[in-house]
Design brief:
137 residues; globular; mainly alpha; 5 helices
């Protein structure tokens, strides 16, 4: 798997800017490929609305006028939007891949791995070391 694909996938686990970039990329790709990809209208509307509200909150929270509650709202909105993407959109993307509508490259561009793929963290060989266990007294 290409390094750029893995970097795109890892943005979901980065900071606010990385996660927003992943959301923005996903929404842009899905919007650009409509109606061929046929995402449910309610889900697309929810994604666009959440992305736009999140962008406004991020911009606001970078000003001196942002309060603590504004930042908490930003974090909550970010978490819920990432949740929509990581659960609902990922399920949709994998189903479209299984149906032959999306390619593996399309799924990777959206920022997701396919079942069975890894992000490069698998151990290739056993280390031969045993983990020491502490016995409870």
């Amino acid at each position: 798997m290409e390094l750029s694909v893995l970097q795109n996938i890892r943005r979901w686990h980065g900071g606010i800017d990385d996660q927003f970039a992943a959301i923005d990329n996903l929404v842009s790709l899905i919007t650009d490929h409509q109606p061929a990809w046929t995402i449910p209208a309610y889900l697309l509307e929810q994604l666009i609305d959440s992305r736009n509200r999140l962008q406004a909150m991020i911009n606001h929270c970078r000003t001196n006028q942002a309060s603590r509650s504004d930042r908490e709202l930003q974090n909550t909105l970010l978490k819920s939007t990432v949740g929509i993407c990581a659960v609902q959109v990922k399920i949709w993307a994998r189903a479209k891949y299984a149906a032959g509508v999306l390619t593996a490259d399309d799924v990777h561009l959206l920022g997701f791995l396919l079942p069975g793929e890894t992000g490069g963290h698998d151990r290739i060989e056993a280390t031969g070391k045993r983990q020491k266990r502490k016995l409870k007294p």
